[in-house]
Structure formats: structure tokens, C-alpha cells
Amino acid sequence: MKAIELIGLEKSYRVNVKALCDLNLSVEKGTLFGFVGPNGAGKSTTIKILAGLAKKDKGEVRLFGNEISSTAYEYKRDVGFVLETPYYIDKLTSREYLNFAAAMYGIPPKEAAARVDELLAFLDLEEKKKEMIESFSAGMKKKVSLAAAVIHQPRLLILDEPLEGIDPTSAKQIKDMLRRIVNKGESVFMSSHNLDTVEKLCDEVAIINKGKLVFQSRTEDIRKKIKDEVSQETYQSLEEIFIDVVSKDGERKEKKKLSWL
Ligand SMILES: Nc1ncnc2c1ncn2[C@@H]1O[C@H](COP(=O)(O)OP(=O)(O)OP(=O)(O)O)[C@@H](O)[C@H]1O
Ligand SMILES: [Mg+2]
Fold it and tell me: What strands lie across the sheet with 17-28, from one edge to the other?
């Protein structure tokens, strides 16, 4: 079964800003899926459409085989989101906000309190549990968003750069948590600019460029070194593949330089 299916997805912000242009992508259930691409490629736009926060112009979005319309919201019970700009209510403490999130998902108060405590400890947020979220650092705010995304044990996690700004100790904890979630049969779709993390952590990776899918592979195959059938070149890493598939023709092998260096 496919957890996510995007078919011919199109989105323009203005007449001349085509963020997504015929994007086709499938994410199998039970996969930890990495979604990478240059700045402005359309990753956050895709994630905002999945979260119902941006309206697609054309195409279909299916989650677990069901088409999602822009006005649907029931599906969000089964999905957890971390968005590019973290969402939280900054006049609440992390505990208050997470309790609120748990209540919105209908988790009974006692169970919610236990999960909140566990999440605050797990993400090293206990020290600041009495402070309002507005006083948190960027990484701490991201952790609060992540805690809210997992609190209802969703079948699918859709995460926009979830590890960005997170310190190495917590990042390791979160990566282990994502792996455990997937090992239980749930699905994770995450964007990232950290190709090493994606290559090591994810089961599958897709590269998007200018709103289109330009590459998709099992990371296991990348680790086994993929041979490009056209150029007969053997790629050594996801980084090499990325730079190759997103660079403009003619610029492929030339490195950009600064005139004063
Ligand atoms: N609110 C907006 N109004 C106008 N244009 C937008 C808006 N949001 C995104 N865009 C444009 O849509 C395109 C895709 O942007 P998007 O944020 O989806 O990229 P991204 O892949 O998430 O990039 P990054 O890696 O920098 O986060 C870009 O050209 C961007 O300028
Ligand atoms: Mg983005």
C-alpha cells in the first residue's frame, strides 16, 4: 500500500512562480522517505499541500489510497506534521501546548499527561518546562513541533526539515525514534538538506528540482554505488547524484568559484 501518492501535482504562487510542475511521487507504507532538493525546489510547497495549508492548482494527493481534497481535515487524525515555520502557541509553556495538542486529538488527559512528560524528557525540554515557548531557541521550538507531531501516534509523519537546528544528541534520539516508528510499520516522509543523514537514515530518497521529480532510489542501492547507464559513471554518494541531477546542462562538471578566492 502507498502511504502517499502525488499525481501530476501543480502549484503556482503567482503567474510566473511555478512551484510544482507535474510532480509525481509515491511513498510506500512502512518507509522512511527522504525528500531532498535545492532551495526553492518545491519541498515545503509539497508539504504545505499535504498539510492542507496550500491549495494545489491541479493533480491528485492520495494518502493510504484515499484522495485528499483541500477542504478535508479528518485525515489529519492519522498524520503528524512538522512544518517549515514551526507551529505552536507561543504564550503557552511546552507542557501546556502539548497537552492542548493531545486534547485536540482526543487523547484522554491522564494518558496525555504521561505522553507529554515522556516527550519532554526524551527531547531534553524538561529544564524549560515552566517557560513560555516564545522564549525558546529555534531548535527547542522545532522539538516542540516534533513532539506535537508524534503525540497522537500517527500512521504517517510528514516532516519539513525536522532535524534542522537540532543539536547532535537530540538529533540522534530523533533519528532513532523515526527508525523505530518505521520498524513498527508506520511511514515517515521528511525533507532535508543533510544528504549524509538521508543516505544513512532513510530507506528511499527522492530529489525534486524546479517542482519536478528528477531522481528516486532506495538508499541501499546508492550505498551499493549506482552506475549511470548514460554516462557509465559510478556515483559514490547521494551528494554526487544530487549535484549531477540538479545542475544545469553545461554546468555539470564546472564548479562555481568566487573571483577573489
Ligand atoms: N508564499 C509564497 N509566495 C510566493 N512564492 C512562494 C511562496 N512560497 C514559496 N514560493 C516559491 O515557490 C518555490 C518553491 O518554494 P518552496 O518553499 O516550496 O521550496 P523548498 O524546496 O522548500 O526550498 P528550501 O529548501 O529553501 O526550503 C520557490 O520559487 C519559492 O520562491
Ligand atoms: Mg522549504
Answer: 17-28, 2-14, 58-63, 66-67
User: Rounded distance, CA 25 to CA 170, Å?
Assistant: 30
Which CATH architecture fits 2-219?
3-Layer(aba) Sandwich (3.40)
Q: How far apart are CA 137 and CA 101, in angstroms?
A: 20
Distance CA 201, CA 237 (A): 14
- Atom 29 of ligand 1, nearest CA residue: 40
89-121 burial by CB neighbour count: b if 16+ within 10 A, else e?
Answer: eeebbbbebbbebbeeeebeeeebeebbeebbe
For residue 193, report the distance from its CA to the centre of ligand 1, in Å.
Answer: 15
Q: What is the dihedral of CA 255, 258, 259, 261, to 10 degrees?
A: -100
Gap from CA of 44 to ligand 2 centroid (Å): 4
Q: What is the 91 CA–ligand 2 centroid distance (Å)?
A: 26
AA letter at 169: T
214 neighbors 207 (Cβ within 8 angstroms): yes
Q: Give ligand 1 pocket residues (Cβ under 6 A).
A: 13, 17, 19, 37, 39-45
- Domain limits, the chain: 2-219
The per-residue pLDDT for range 103-161, each reduced to its tens digit, is 999 999 999 999 999 999 999 999 988 899 999 999 999 999 999 999 999 999 999 99
pTM above 0.85, yes or no: yes
Instruction: Specify the ligand 1 atom closest to the Cα of 208.
Output: 21
In terms of Cα–Cα distance, which of 52, 166, 144, 44 is closest to 90? 144
Ligand 1 atom at minimal distance to the Cα of residue 45: 18
